[in-house]
Task: inverse folding
C-alpha cells in the first residue's frame, strides 16, 4: 500500500513541477486530500492491516507577488548609479557594509579579523578605520555600549574571522569596548578619543609597519573628521585627534616617535587653530600641512577628496570613480562605512548636511566629475555612489538627484555642442560679428 501511495505522490509532484499557476496548487491540494482519504479508508490497501501512524501532509507555500511598487525596494535600494546601505542606525549600517565588503559565502573567505567599536564612540570608529586597510583587513562592527546587538552578532557569525599572521592571530580587535566570548581578541583601550586613537596607531604600526603619513582630525567637530575614516581605510594611515586650540599629549607622543612622517590636518583654522597647528609642528619630525582648510564640513570633504600631495590624498578630479555619501548628523556612519572605501570602487567619503537635496558644494563637485562619452557609452568611465543610511539620513529625492548627476552623458550633440557644458574656468565663447572681427584683427600684422 505504502509503495503505491509513494508512486501516486511522485506523479502528483511531477505534475506540479511541470504545471505552474493556481490550478496546479488546487490540484495538488485535492490530490493530497484523496491520498489521505484513501489511506484512511484502506481503498488502496485491500486486506492489508491498517496503519496507525499519522496521515501524510502535503503543504503548498506561496508568496504573494508585490502589489505596490514600494514593495520592490526601488529606487531606495539602488538606482543606475547608486546603492544604498539602508540601516536605521550605524549598527545596522556597519553590519551591512561588512557583509557587502566581505560576502563570506560561496567559498569566499571572510576577513581575517573585525574591529569592534561602541556605536556611541564615533572617534574610535574613525581611528579604527585604519585597521580596515590591507594587510590587516578588519572591517568595523558596532556594539551598543557593552551589549552585542543581534545584527552585530549575526554579522560576526557570518564573517567568521579566523585570524592571520597579519592580525597576529587575532580574530577581533575590541576598540574601547568589551570583546565577546568565543573569539581570540585583542583589547585596545583608552580614557579618551586621543588615547584610543594613539593606541590604534601603535597597533597599526606594529602589524603593518610605520606609516608615511598621519591624519590629524578634530575630536570636537565630527563632521570635519568623518572623511578621515575613508582615507584611513583606503591607505592605512592612522588618524589622530586634536582640539580646536590644543593637541592632546597622546597625539603629540605618537608624532614625536614617528620618523619622517608627514602630518596632514583636516579642517580650517576655525576647526583646528594655528595655535594647535604650531603644537603639531613642534612635535612632528615631518612637515605639517593642511589637506583641507574649509570652514564648512561639506566643502571640506570635497576639498579633501580633491587633494593630493605625492602619495597622499584621493586626487579625485576626473570622472570614473566611486564615492560614499553619509549624513553629517550621523558621524558613527563614517567608521561603519569605511570598508566601502577599501575595495570595490575605492571612493572618498563625502558628507551632506541636508537630507533632502545635495548641498551646492557637493552638487558642484559631482557635476564637475560627471562622466561623458563621444560615440559609445559602453566604452565610457562611470561613477558609482554609495548612500549610507535610511531615508531619514539621506532621502530618496537626494539619491535620485545624485544618480542623475552621476549618469554618463553624451559629450556632443548633433550640432557639435557639448551637453556637459564647458569645463570650469573656460572663458565665455565670443559670438557673431564681434568674434569674427576680433579674429580678423588678430590676423593683421602688428606695427
Result:
Amino acid at each position: 500500500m505504502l509503495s503505491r501511495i509513494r508512486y501516486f505522490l511522485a506523479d502528483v509532484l511531477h505534475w506540479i513541477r511541470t504545471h505552474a499557476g493556481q490550478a496546479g496548487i488546487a490540484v495538488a491540494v485535492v490530490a493530497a486530500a484523496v491520498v489521505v482519504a484513501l489511506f484512511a479508508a484502506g481503498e488502496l490497501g485491500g486486506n492489508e492491516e491498517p496503519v496507525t501512524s499519522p496521515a501524510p501532509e502535503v503543504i503548498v507555500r506561496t508568496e504573494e507577488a508585490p502589489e505596490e511598487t514600494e514593495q520592490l525596494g526601488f529606487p531606495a535600494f539602488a538606482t543606475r548609479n547608486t546603492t544604498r546601505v539602508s540601516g536605521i542606525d550605524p549598527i545596522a549600517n556597519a553590519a551591512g557594509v561588512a557583509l557587502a565588503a566581505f560576502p563570506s559565502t560561496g567559498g569566499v573567505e571572510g576577513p581575517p579579523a573585525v574591529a569592534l567599536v561602541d556605536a556611541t564612540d564615533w572617534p574610535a570608529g574613525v581611528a579604527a578605520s585604519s585597521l580596515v586597510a590591507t594587510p590587516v583587513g578588519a572591517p568595523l562592527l558596532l556594539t551598543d555600549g557593552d551589549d552585542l546587538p543581534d545584527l552585530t552578532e549575526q554579522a560576526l557569525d557570518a564573517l567568521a574571522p579566523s585570524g592571520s599572521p597579519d592580525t597576529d592571530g587575532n580574530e577581533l580587535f575590541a576598540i574601547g569596548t568589551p570583546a565577546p566570548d568565543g573569539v581570540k581578541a585583542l583589547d585596545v583601550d583608552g580614557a579618551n578619543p586621543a588615547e584610543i586613537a594613539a593606541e590604534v596607531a601603535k597597533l597599526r604600526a606594529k602589524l603593518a609597519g610605520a606609516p608615511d603619513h598621519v591624519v590629524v582630525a578634530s575630536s570636537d567637530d565630527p563632521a570635519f573628521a568623518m572623511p578621515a575614516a575613508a582615507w584611513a581605510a583606503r591607505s592605512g594611515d592612522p588618524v589622530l585627534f586634536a582640539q580646536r586650540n590644543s593637541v592632546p599629549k597622546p597625539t603629540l607622543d605618537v608624532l614625536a616617535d614617528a620618523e619622517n612622517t608627514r602630518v596632514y590636518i583636516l579642517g580650517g583654522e576655525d576647526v583646528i587653530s594655528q595655535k594647535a597647528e604650531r603644537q603639531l609642528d613642534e612635535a612632528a619630525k615631518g612637515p605639517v600641512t593642511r589637506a583641507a582648510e574649509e570652514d564648512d564640513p561639506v566643502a571640506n570633504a570635497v576639498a579633501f577628496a580633491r587633494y593630493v600631495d605625492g602619495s597622499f590624498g584621493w586626487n579625485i578630479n576626473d570622472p570614473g570613480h566611486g564615492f560614499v555619501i553619509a549624513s553629517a548628523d550621523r558621524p558613527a556612519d563614517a567608521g561603519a562605512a569605511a570598508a566601502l572605501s577599501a575595495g570595490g570602487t575605492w571612493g572618498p567619503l563625502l558628507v551632506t548636511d541636508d537630507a533632502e537635496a545635495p548641498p551646492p558644494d557637493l552638487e558642484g563637485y559631482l557635476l564637475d566629475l560627471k562622466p561623458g562619452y563621444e560615440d559609445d557609452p559602453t566604452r565610457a568611465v562611470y561613477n558609482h555612489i554609495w548612500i549610507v543610511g535610511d531615508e531619514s539620513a539621506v532621502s530618496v529625492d537626494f539619491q535620485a538627484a545624485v544618480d542623475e548627476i552621476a549618469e554618463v552623458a553624451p559629450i556632443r550633440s548633433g550640432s557639435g555642442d557639448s551637453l556637459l557644458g564647458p569645463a570650469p574656468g573656460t572663458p565665455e565663447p565670443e559670438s557673431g560679428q564681434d568674434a569674427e572681427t576680433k579674429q580678423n584683427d588678430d590676423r593683421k600684422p602688428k606695427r
